[in-house]
């Protein structure tokens, strides 16, 4: 099996509209959470989200082009452009024909769908926009990336709720590792701020009325975020042959299904995915130094994840440096796995570990090292990024700094 | 106006909602049942509150939901909200 490396990363999210801003935000512990401004949230009980700031589609697309794709797919293309530019990959006819595109999205273009349904149900209009179907489809991001670069190889989208893009990156990793493609563009994108979608989250009673405080005793829920992260991944040999500088190696991947409850997480299921990732990477638990936690800031997730880390790592769990960057960029659902792997890789490359910001008070049930004092300078070789989805689907990616 | 809501009818309506949403026989749900005894987890609790909010036309704040772990706590909480609604009307905007 071939070794697989990341050679380009692109990010757009609540703490940065590009990779550089994102890295600065991570280091400085910037909080991208604020009042939701892109839609009228009316009577919704929570007010805050982590929106992409000052976003104008016309800064990135011809108007005719942006009319054809929902905000979530626009984010996907913007992040893919940045990742491709950093990788320096040149799209030869052969590479266009063989490269893969595998993206993750939980809800696709539901903002577009919400607008169309509002038009017919509420406003009594007799027709919706003719592009509603192709703008809503969850694979719109993958398709837009394919069109952007003229890539004609395997392309598809995985939708496993909050694990979507972790599963997508894993599939791209396996595709390249197995030699089925030399290069893949992979990641995830999401744009969940529409009134109907926010109403649905309100009904679940898991959204914080204030901010996301992962692992803090006074945590009171998650904060939704939007954005995308895309990566160019390729075989190590392919990268070296064209003189590219790998940012990190994808060392392994593990997944599992809880078979426990549709919304309550299971420590056993999460631990099983962590074990599987370590086994796939052929590394010992003691080699992991940093964990980018799923860390949603809900009462149940953070306790269960802490328990899962103890199950997976035993006593060594106390030596792990753990943080949840969701306190900065929010929970970006189907983009979360990709944005958080990007955070992990960029921070490792820059020699620091991002903090868990907004932390106030130690919880006796969350008693590990969550990097609450601010970003920590550290030379770190191995790290994992956890994603645990509603429906009990767990995905864990292991990376190694190069 | 819901001035005809007696304590008894309010309790009975809540017991019926819990039985219905949990697919239980009405006789299995009593005012003294805890959610644990009834096998009601946090997501079930959210589903019950949703039905109760519709039944009584009230809004139960998220913070209160977390503290309700028995039928009696739910009845007490709902009674309070219904009384506030009957008394003042616009209680939610003020708090």
SSE inventory with pairings:
The complex is a heterodimer of chains A (402) and B (95).
Chain A: E1 4-13, H1 19-28, E2 34-35, E3 48-49, H2 63-67, H3 71-87, H4 93-98, E4 100-104, H5 110-122, H6 132-136, H7 140-149, E5 155-158, H8 164-177, E6 183-190, H9 195-204, E7 227-235, H10 236-241, E8 248-257, H11 267-281, E9 288-292, H12 299-313, E10 321-323, H13 326-329, H14 336-350, E11 352-353, E12 376-377, E13 382-389, E14 393-401
Parallel strand pairs in A: 4-5, 4-6, 9-10, 9-13
Antiparallel strand pairs in A: 1-7, 1-8, 2-3, 6-7, 8-14, 11-12, 13-14
Helix pairs in contact in A: 3-7, 8-14, 11-12
Chain B: H1 7-21, H2 42-56, H3 62-67, H4 71-88, H5 91-94
Helix pairs in contact in B: 1-2, 1-4
Distinctive features:
heterodimer, A: 402 residues, alpha/beta, Peroxisomal Thiolase, Chain A, domain 1, ten-stranded mixed beta sheet, B: 95 residues, Non-ribosomal Peptide Synthetase Peptidyl Carrier Protein, Chain A, 5 helices, disordered C terminus
User: Could you describe the largest sheet of chain B, including whether it forms a barrel?
Assistant: none
Quaternary state reads heterodimer
- Note the total helix count of chain A: 14
How many strand units of chain B?
Answer: 0
Structural class of chain B: mainly alpha
Low-confidence stretches of chain B: 91-95
Mean pLDDT of chain A: 97
Distance between the termini of chain A: 19 Å
Strand fraction of chain B equals under 5%
Q: How much strand content do the residues of chain A show?
A: 15-25%
Helix share of residues of chain B? 55-70%
Order of helices and strands of chain B: HHHHH
CATH architecture assignment of the largest domain in chain A? 3-Layer(aba) Sandwich
Helix content of chain A: 25-40%
User: Per the principal axes of the C-alpha atoms, what is the gross shape of chain B?
Assistant: globular
Number of helices of chain B: 5
CATH class of chain B equals: Mainly Alpha
Strand order of the largest sheet of chain A: 5-4-6-7-1-8-14-13-9-10
